[in-house]
Amino acid sequence: MANGGPVEHGFPHLDTVRASITALYKRLSYDTIHTFATSVAPADVAFGDIDDLHLGAQRVAREMVHHYHLPDARLIIGFREMTQAANVELTAGPEYFVELNDRFRSHRRDIGAALAHEVMHVYL
User: Fold this and answer.
1) What would the DSSP string read from start to end of 48-106?
2) pTM of the predicted model over 0.90
């Protein structure tokens, strides 16, 4: 939905996506971007309903830190009711606090994507 309105079909933000990718390549360079693996293995970011929520999220966060080649970055993961999917508190490090939306308690398979996004904020 767009601001509570009807669903926008197609790719309404394609220009923004293209501009963002261009800015990313300018900031990081082609060579830097290609130091990252194409993807993280699904098994490395998955955990089941019987696994401890916080320990599983910490493990996934460590995997994302490793994927982005961040030195000694430690993410503390918490869950709370919020509008957005996640939020990271950017500090001088090496500890960063990430809050995930409470909905991830029951939609654990999406935690990897949210943490990948938040860890990239730390990287940039």
Assistant:
1) -TTS-HHHHHHHHHHHHHHHTT-SS-EEEEEEE--SSSEEEE--SSSEEEEEEEGGGGT
2) no
